[in-house]
Structure formats: structure tokens, C-alpha cells
């Protein structure tokens, strides 16, 4: 179902969804909570098998009733009683009402478009309702299909600890019970962490190893927070199953352990099937599971790099072509004396936040798609300030001034080529080998693109470099080409070569415009979403290149002044 980024592209993410800090609120989140979702007795929409459910979470934007997608779980095949592994991680504010909507679908194809799948019902609640329930466990009926009992949903909230360690583990097993009539078992492991009320929450599944009683599973990495919420003595239950195609997996047995026990080198566990143990006097076990390796890694954060002195270089490019005469209200570049146009709002919204991470606040601002004075030559890369030798502007206010000045001096003209601009920034990024600088290219466009093939090739090449590309679409156009460049549903490729990382983030500005005309709210919404992926894109580059953050400088200590007293 593709890569991630809930809320815009509709792709089914590969990881748990993390809610970002709420830029529209002045308060600091009281804590982060992790929501786990399970269902019982869902509707069966498939003829020859059971439903293949997925859960989609929606939240309501501040100040209006619009529902926006927050994230999606994985799809679980062939079951009416799913326990979803992927979690939703949200900021919890005691003083705010956070409305939630959980929608359930039976997935029938690989399409990320929810309208292509069968609707199974929905549940409405608030985050406070979940947290305030006994044991922070809310169970409610699923509704939404008249005349049908749609089952129930159980949502559990758990406050997250701040442990940043991850552990890389590998397991194997020996002499597991044979469960298949014509062959050996197809075993896999399911890990659960215990909750404070004695229940268990699923936190990891291994892959299935086919036709063996002595499987060796691939090593996997899991955060200590997900495994035990930072409590080293919390019980971890591991179940062993034999995979079956119809979803009715056969239980082989289970064992319990703890993070502390694993970290101390406890390596072999008896797999116990309680039913067999109760029936057979000479029962010993249903096989053994052995821990082959246990490696602790401390996850570094985006802020670790910022504290260590890493900086962002912010490059700005504006598509000026084919958007009408700036003196006419129908133009997206209309120079309204009373308010910013769409280009100006997008530029200011993103720029004012990211400029705080740029060390010198000097931004090269380029335009493309215009005839330049004095001879009217067409340019796809020109300095907005009119100085090709020094296209740098001081701060976002300087960029805004250069943008409005350029509208008075150049003639807008197509076609629009993206590749030269991406290659321009890529040349700078390629010269930085130590990761000390990261480049962010902001492109604001009306959706027209004339060099799609070349642009895709440029993005694939740039995905190896310390850079990200933000594309903000303005105006009413269809942005299909931009969605393709975004690469969330299908990783972008060129000439058979796929991008190393997802480095493009596209959003249409119209999705963020406040209907009451509150432009401050519109810009805050845009900035929150458009910048959401930059930290993870930055971290993915650093991880791939093995670049660790520099030590943070020591805290400032004021000098000690010795007072001399004259006697």
C-alpha cells in the first residue's frame, strides 16, 4: 500500500503515525499518548473468506468541523477480530477537546483510495473520553450502516515514556510442534507488552518462515518504548503460531520474559501450550525459542542534530509562468494592497518557521517562467532581486520584497521547467559531505510542469543528497503531476532507478485555507503540514550515511567576577 504520509495522499503508511506539536496552540502538550485499536465481530463483506480490515483515524481541525485524516493502521487479512499492530501517537492536552473518528474498511485491492473498498462502519469519540475511561480503555459500538450490527471497537490509551533506546533482536526456534497435515509448521512470533491493568497489547509480529520446525527469523528493531514503555521489568509475552492461509492461525505455545531478562542474556525459553500441559503428564514443551542477538541502540533525535550545530540552507523558487497579469485580480500573483496573495501566504507561512534553523538567514530566491528585461529573453532560473551574481535576500521579508519587485519588472511566460532548479540546489548539496548542512528547496507552483521526465530524474539523483523539496500548489488546478512527484503511494523512479529516500513533500494550499478568511490560521495550518516530514527526511539521510550528531556545546556559564576590596 505504499509509503507513508497520512492525511493528503491517502497512502497506507508503513509505520505508526506520530502527531506533530500543535502550532496552532500556545500550550505545550501535557504528554503523548499511544492509541491501540482492536475490533470484535466486524461485518463480513467477503463472500469466500472473512473481511480484510484496516482502521483509519480522523481528527477535526481547530476552529472548524472539517475531518482530516491522521493515519492508518496496517491491513490484517481474513479476520473479523483484528488487533492492529500500528499505533496512533497523539499529543494530549487536558484543556482541549480533541474529536476523533475511527473508520473501518474491508480492503479489496492495493488502491489507497478508500472509496474503492467496502465501508465497515465508524466510531466517534474524544481523546479525553478514551483517557478518562476506566483503565484508559474505551469500548464502543461501531455504527454507520443502518440496520446492521457492525461490531465493537476497543481503543486503549497509554501515556508514553520518554525512553529513546531501541533494541535489535534476532530469534530462532527448535523442535516446534508440527501443525500442518501435509508439511511442517509455518511459524511466526507475536510480541505483546503487558498493561497496568493486566491486559496485553500487541507490539510486533515477525515474518512467517515456511515449512520448518526450526525457524530462524530475521533480526528486527523495536523501540524500548513500544516493547515495554521503558519499564524494564514489565512482562513481555511472546506467542508462537503456525500460519494458515485462511487466517485461522494455529497456536503452538507461548512464553513470557522481560526487557531486563533479555538484556542480561537469558537466551532460551520453553514454548508452553497450556492446554497440552493440562492434558499430558509428561509434557515438557512445544519447542524452544532462542535469543540469538540483543543489541541496544540509542535513537538520536532531530533536536540532537540541531543542538549539535547542524543548520539548514533554505532555497526558494517561485513559478511565475502562466498565472495571468499581476495587476488583475484573476492572477495568482495579484498584488492586492490589502492582503497577501496565495504565493505570498505560502512563502511567509513556510519561510517564517524554517528560517529559524538557517544559520545566516540569507536565502537565494529564484524565479522561473518569465521574460527578463531589457531584451525579453526567457529564463527558467533568475534572481528575484534582479542580481544574478548575488541572488541572496535577507530573511523572508527580504524574499517577499524581492518577489513583489520582480512582478513589476518581468513578464510572466511559460513553459515551466523544474529540473534546472532542482539540479541547481543539488550542486550545492553535493559539495557538503559531512552532513553539517541540509538543503531545503521550496517550490511554489500553479501546477503546470513542462519537463516531467527530467524532473523525476533530478529528484531520483537528489535523493542521495542532503536535501528535501517542498512543493506548495496554489490555485484551482489539478495537481496530479505534483502528487506523482511526492512519491508517497509509489516511490518515484526514473529509467528503472528508484529514489533512495522520499524527499518530496507536496501539499495543495487550497486544502488549508480558512473559510472564514482567517489568513493567519490558513498559514499556520499549511506550515504545520508542509514541514511535518522535514525532520524525518533529515534523519533518514543522517542514518543512511552513518552521520552522528555533534556533541552539544556546553551550557553557558557566566564569568565569575572577583570583587577586590580596598582597605
UniProtKB/TrEMBL annotation:
Q: Which keywords accompany this UniProt record?
A: Calcium, Metal-binding, Phosphoprotein, Repeat
State the Gene Ontology BP annotations: cellular response to calcium ion
| Task performed by this protein | Probable calcium-dependent phospholipid-binding protein that may play a role in calcium-mediated intracellular processes.
Domain of life, per lineage: Eukaryota
Which PANTHER family did the record assign? COPINE, COPINE-8
> Annotated Gene Ontology MF terms?
calcium-dependent phospholipid binding; metal ion binding
Q: Which positions fall inside the C2 domain?
A: 9-140, 149-272
Q: What is this protein called?
A: Copine-8
Family assignment from sequence similarity:
Belongs to the copine family.
Q: Which gene encodes it?
A: Cpne8
Q: Which GO terms describe its cellular component?
A: plasma membrane
Q: Name the lineage.
A: Eukaryota, Metazoa, Chordata, Craniata, Vertebrata
- Give the matching PROSITE patterns: C2
Q: Which Pfam families match?
A: C2, Copine
Amino acid at each position: 500500500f505504499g509509503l507513508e504520509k497520512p492525511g493528503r495522499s491517502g497512502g497506507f503508511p508503513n509505520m505508526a503515525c506520530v502527531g506533530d506539536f500543535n502550532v496552532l496552540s500556545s500550550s505545550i502538550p501535557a504528554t503523548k499518548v499511544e492509541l491501540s485499536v482492536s475490533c470484535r465481530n466486524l461485518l463480513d463483506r467477503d463472500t469466500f473468506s472473512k473481511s480484510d480490515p484496516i482502521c483509519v483515524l480522523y481528527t477535526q481541525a481547530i476552529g472548524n468541523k472539517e475531518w482530516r485524516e491522521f493515519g492508518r493502521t496496517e491491513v490484517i487479512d481474513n479476520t473479523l477480530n483484528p488487533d492492529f499492530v500500528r499505533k496512533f501517537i497523539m499529543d494530549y492536552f487536558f484543556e482541549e477537546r480533541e474529536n476523533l473518528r475511527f473508520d473501518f474498511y474491508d480492503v479489496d485491492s492495493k488502491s489507497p483510495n478508500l472509496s474503492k473498498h467496502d465501508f465497515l462502519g465508524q466510531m466517534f469519540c474524544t481523546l479525553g473520553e478514551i483517557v478518562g475511561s476506566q483503565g484508559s480503555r474505551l469500548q464502543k459500538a461501531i455504527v454507520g450502516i443502518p440496520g446492521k450490527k457492525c461490531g465493537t471497537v476497543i481503543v486503549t490509551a497509554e501515556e508514553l515514556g520518554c525512553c529513546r533506546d531501541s533494541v535489535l533482536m534476532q530469534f530462532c526456534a527448535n523442535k516446534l510442534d508440527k501443525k500442518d497435515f501435509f508439511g511442517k509448521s509455518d511459524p511466526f512470533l507475536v510480541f505483546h507488552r503487558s498493561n497496568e491493568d493486566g491486559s496485553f497489547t500487541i507490539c510486533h509480529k515477525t515474518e512467517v518462515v515456511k515449512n520448518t520446525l526450526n525457524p530462524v527469523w530475521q533480526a528486527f528493531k523495536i523501540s524500548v518504548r513500544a516493547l515495554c514503555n521503558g519499564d524494564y521489568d514489565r512482562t513481555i509475552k511472546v506467542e508462537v503460531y503456525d500460519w494458515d492461509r485462511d487466517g485461522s492461525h494455529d497456536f503452538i505455545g507461548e512464553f513470557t520474559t522481560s526487557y531486563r531478562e533479555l538484556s542480561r542474556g537469558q537466551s532460551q525459553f520453553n514454548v508452553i501450550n497450556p492446554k497440552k500441559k493440562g492434558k499430558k503428564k509428561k509434557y515438557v514443551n512445544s519447542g524452544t525459542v532462542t535469543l540469538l542477538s540483543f543489541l541496544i541502540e540509542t535513537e538520536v533525535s532531530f533536536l540532537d542534530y540541531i543542538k549539535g550545530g547542524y543548520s539548514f540552507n533554505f532555497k526558494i523558487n517561485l513559478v511565475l509562468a502562466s498565472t495571468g497579469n499581476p495587476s488583475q485580480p484573476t492572477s495568482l500573483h495579484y498584488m492586492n494592497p490589502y492582503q497577501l496573495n496565495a504565493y505570498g501566504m505560502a512563502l511567509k507561512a513556510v519561510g517564517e518557521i524554517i528560517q529559524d534553523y538557517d544559520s545566516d538567514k540569507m536565502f537565494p530566491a529564484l524565479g522561473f517562467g518569465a521574460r527578463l528585461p531589457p531584451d525579453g529573453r526567457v529564463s527558467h532560473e533568475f534572481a528575484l532581486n534582479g542580481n544574478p551574481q548575488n541572488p541572496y535576500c535577507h530573511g523572508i521579508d527580504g524574499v517577499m520584497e524581492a518577489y513583489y519587485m520582480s512582478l513589476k519588472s518581468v513578464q510572466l511566460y511559460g513553459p515551466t521547467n523544474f529540473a534546472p532548479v532542482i539540479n541547481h540546489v543539488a550542486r550545492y548539496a553535493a559539495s557538503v559531505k559531512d552532513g553539517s548542512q541540509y538543503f531545503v528547496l521550496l517550490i511554489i507552483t500553479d501546477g503546470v510542469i513542462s519537463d516531467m521526465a527530467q524532473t523525476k530524474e533530478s529528484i531520483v539523483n537528489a535523493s542521495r543528497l542532503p536535501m528535501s523539496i517542498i512543493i506548495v500548489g496554489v490555485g484551482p488546478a489539478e495537481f496530479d503531476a505534483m502528487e506523482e512527484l511526492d512519491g508517497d503511494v509509489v516511490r518515484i523512479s526514473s529509467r528503472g532507478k528508484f529514489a533512495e529516500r522520499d524527499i518530496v513533500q507536496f501539499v495543495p494550499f487550497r486544502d488549508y485555507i480558512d473559510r472564514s478568511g482567517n489568513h493567519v490560521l490558513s498559514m499556520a495550518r499549511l506550515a504545520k503540514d508542509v514541514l511535518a516530514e522535514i525532520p524525518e527526511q533529515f534523519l533518514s539521510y543522517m542514518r543512511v550515511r552513518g552521520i552522528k550528531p555533534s556533541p552539544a556545546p556546553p551550557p553557558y556559564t557566566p564569568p565569575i567576577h572577583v570583587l577586590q576590596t580596598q582597605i
